[in-house]
Each structure stands twice: as C-alpha cells, then as structure tokens.
Specification:
about 140 residues, Signal recognition particle alu RNA binding heterodimer, srp9/1, 4-stranded mixed sheet, globular, PhnB-like, PhnB-like domain-containing protein, 3_dmu_93_MTrfase, Glyas_Bleomycin-R_OHBP_Dase
Length: about 140
C-alpha cells in the first residue's frame, strides 16, 4: 500500500522512544517494515537524531510515530488501541506474550464469545493492542 492511498493512519507520539518502539513492533509482527524515518538535526527542536516523523507498517497497515520535543502531562490510554488480526495461533501467542512483557494484560489470551482467540494488552511503551485470531 503506498503512503498516498491510506487516508487515515494511527499516529503514536513518544517522548524519545519512537524509534525503539517502531523497531520493536516491526520485529514482532509478521509482514511489517519501517517505511520512512525523518530525524531532528542539530538545529532541533528535538534532540539530534530523535524522530521528527516516521512511518512503519504492520500487515500492510501504516502507522506513524514521532518523538515530541515537548514534555506532556499525558501519555497513551487504554481507551484507544490498535486492533490486529493475526493469521495463526503461533503468531497471536508470540505477539501477545512479547507485548505483555513489562506491560499490562487487560484481557488474557483466551476464547471469548466474539473471538476464537483474543487478548488485550498494554505494552512497555503504554500502547494498547487488541489481538484477535483470523477465522
């Protein structure tokens, strides 16, 4: 999917950990890649080398992220999450287990009336993920 075709993209704002998170996510999910990275130079306003704007994809869905040079009194909240449909039991198990390390489990990986296998987890960066197995 080319960047121009997807009109709505989730945008994740970090405070210095955007590249670390993006590398973590693209190493974890199947069919994922870093599409582009634009970094701050010595002129700022963010620390040199931190992320002005980056795009990565998971299963063809593009997600943007950045490092805010401004410290905020807020962070991610579980009231919005990224919903990912996994292709195999192995993928959902691996992704759920890895995302939950140093994170928080909101709904354990199990069978629910709406999904054969589903889990909801907040990762170590505070981003929340709903994972469901493809039927």
């Amino acid at each position: 999917m080319s960047e121009g075709k997807q009109k709505v993209k989730p945008f994740l704002m970090f405070e210095g950990r955007a590249e670390e998170a993006m590398n973590f996510y693209t190493s974890l999910f199947d069919q994922s890649e870093i599409v582009s990275i634009e970094r701050y130079g010595p002129e700022g306003p963010g620390p040199e080398g931190s992320v002005v704007k980056a795009t990565f994809s998971i299963h063809g869905q593009q997600i943007m992220c950045s490092d805010s040079p401004v410290k905020h009194a807020f962070t991610f909240t579980p009231s919005i999450s990224l919903f990912v449909t996994c292709d195999t039991v192995e993928e959902i198990n691996r992704v759920f287990e890895t995302l939950s390390q140093d994170g928080k489990v909101y709904m354990g990986l199990a069978t629910y009336p709406f999904s054969e296998r589903f889990g909801w987890v907040g990762d170590r960066f505070g981003v929340t993920w709903q994972l469901s197995l493809e039927k």
